[in-house]
Amino acid sequence: MNPIRPVFIISDHTGITAEIIGKSLLSQFPGEAFATESLPFVDSQDKVEDAANRIREAWKVSSLKPLVFATMTEASARAALEATGAVVMDIYGHFLGMMIGELGRPAVAVKGQSHSASDAGAYHDRIDAVNFSLAADDGLSTQKYEQADLILVGVSRSGKTPTSLYMAMQYGLKVANYPLTPENFEHHSLPESLMPYLKKLRGLTLKPERLAAIRSERRPNSTYASLATCKQELDQAYNMLTDVGIPILDSSTRSVEEIAAILRQSLLKGAK
Length: 272
Prior knowledge:
Elements: E1 4-11, H1 16-26, E2 33-39, H2 45-62, E3 67-71, H3 75-82, E4 87-90, H4 91-103, H5 120-135, E5 150-155, H6 160-171, E6 175-180, H7 182-187, E7 201-205, H8 208-218, H9 227-243, E8 248-250, H10 256-271
Parallel strand pairs: 1-2, 1-3, 3-4, 5-6, 5-7, 7-8
Helix pairs in contact: 5-6, 6-10, 8-9
């Protein structure tokens, strides 16, 4: 087994940007072992020095040079991290330097701008979208479907709710979701409440084995979680959706982020 290398994700605000980029890069090295520590809101010199000391201590304990993913807007803070001798991947510093060279003007350091509430309109849209997705979760409030940007359809535990909420929070999209149940399958067609909104519908599916594993965590040794039930429901859902031309996305090996990005792209293409 490979030794565990310390990894730090450091930001003077939420750290969302550094975390997304850092974890994406780390995932490209599946054979390596990493111990990741996130340090958000490192927004004073004292906190920067504390973070630097943690990096040095981790290096001493592990005997491996730490990896540091950082989004620090202050040049002095970036310099303090680099002084540790760790492998510092300074996301802002690297790209800001490139942009300054091209634009010919200095950047204005504003902490947390990319994930702040300073854009009141966008922030309000995201909150509205989250409230909508909660209200229209799991087949509730079908009368609100006229307001929906997207309606996810699939069998129970196919990933509809987390995807709906992620798209609301990340993109400000109003996403409803509707679960297909044995009662729906008895009628061999989509519920009437969905039929006026076929252009908004997207199906989610997954491999029967994956669905059975997910359901078993909730109801072990049940008919609901059996492989036979999962396969039957997935086949019936697939037939119902394809009969009316609904695009279907397999979520078996995709993260919520990937699923959401693919669905959003399909909406953008459909709007052209």
